[in-house]
């Protein structure tokens, strides 16, 4: 049987294919709106808490510092709260310390591939769910401001690593008591260490980290160490969504715990 240049058998009538003309927003009958609604509520609660925590002044009590206010880099910080005892921003910085480093962890999560999916659906309804029409008439993707900023996610990854290192140091310092003696292990110490583990797990499970470890290699056999690193990160990457949620709430709960202890609301031997 001969064929035309379009690959259609000769003699068969040309059939014009069109997209289905469905005027309804969706034909789904399940509760498709539930997932984006839960995501909206969860992310909104984190944002509200974050705004409050940044301007709250009760962020340090020996030997704990609240994660949202670390590192503390100005002389306005309590002496024991200054990162490595340094204050490179001097006296001129009088705003809350959290504003100094907010851009690094916030930028990393805001441009994260999973979080993009979450807030695109929950906040922008783009789209709110699979097989549900979105209210936007135009789609430009991530080619214009502000969404073009999503393309620098890999660079925010390096900033997130720095913040993870700082939080790890804070967890190490939490092994001291209020007098500076090592060997302390209170409830706050445990909470800060759990948070550090989850923060590192989420950071290392990032798609950019997976690409950095061995994304451009053509022969794994020639790079056995990088292949092992890639394998480890790939296993974490499978749980990237779960780790995103766990680490988000672990840092919030750790931050809240320290502030409650600093305010004297929580005060018992295990603090």
UniProtKB/TrEMBL annotation:
In terms of domain of life, where is this protein from? Answer: Bacteria
Q: Could you list the residue ranges that cross the membrane?
A: 32-55, 92-115, 155-175, 181-202, 242-262
Chain intervals for the UniProt region annotation (Disordered) = 1-20
Would I find Chaperone among this entry's keywords?
A: no
- This protein's UniProt keywords: Membrane, Transmembrane, Transmembrane helix
Q: Where is the signal peptide?
A: none
Q: What name has this protein been given in UniProt?
A: Succinate dehydrogenase
Recorded source organism is: Sphaerisporangium album
């Amino acid at each position: 049987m001969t064929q035309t240049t379009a690959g259609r058998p000769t003699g068969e009538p040309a059939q014009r294919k069109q997209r289905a003309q469905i005027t309804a927003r969706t034909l789904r009958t399940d509760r498709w709106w539930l997932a984006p609604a839960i995501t909206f509520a969860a992310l909104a609660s984190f944002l509200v808490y974050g705004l409050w925590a940044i301007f709250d002044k009760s962020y340090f009590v020996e030997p704990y510092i609240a994660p949202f206010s670390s590192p503390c880099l100005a002389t306005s910080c309590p002496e024991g709260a200054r990162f490595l005892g340094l204050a490179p921003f001097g006296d001129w910085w009088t705003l809350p310390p959290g504003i100094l480093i907010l851009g690094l962890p916030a930028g990393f999560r805001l441009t994260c591939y999973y979080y993009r999916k979450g807030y695109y659906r929950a906040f922008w309804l783009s789209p709110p769910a699979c097989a549900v029409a979105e209210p936007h008439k135009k789609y430009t993707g991530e080619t214009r401001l502000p969404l073009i900023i999503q393309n620098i996610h890999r660079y925010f990854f390096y900033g997130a690593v720095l913040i993870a290192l700082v939080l790890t140091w804070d967890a190490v310092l939490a092994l001291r008591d209020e007098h500076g003696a090592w060997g302390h292990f209170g409830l706050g110490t445990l909470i800060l260490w759990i948070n550090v583990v989850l923060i590192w797990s989420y950071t290392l499970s990032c798609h950019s980290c997976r690409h950095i470890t061995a994304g451009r290699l053509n022969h794994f056999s020639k790079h056995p160490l990088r292949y092992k690193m890639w394998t480890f990160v790939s296993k974490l990457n499978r749980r990237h969504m779960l780790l995103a949620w766990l680490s988000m709430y672990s840092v919030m709960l750790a931050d809240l715990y320290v502030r409650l202890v600093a305010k004297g609301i929580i005060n018992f031997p295990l603090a």
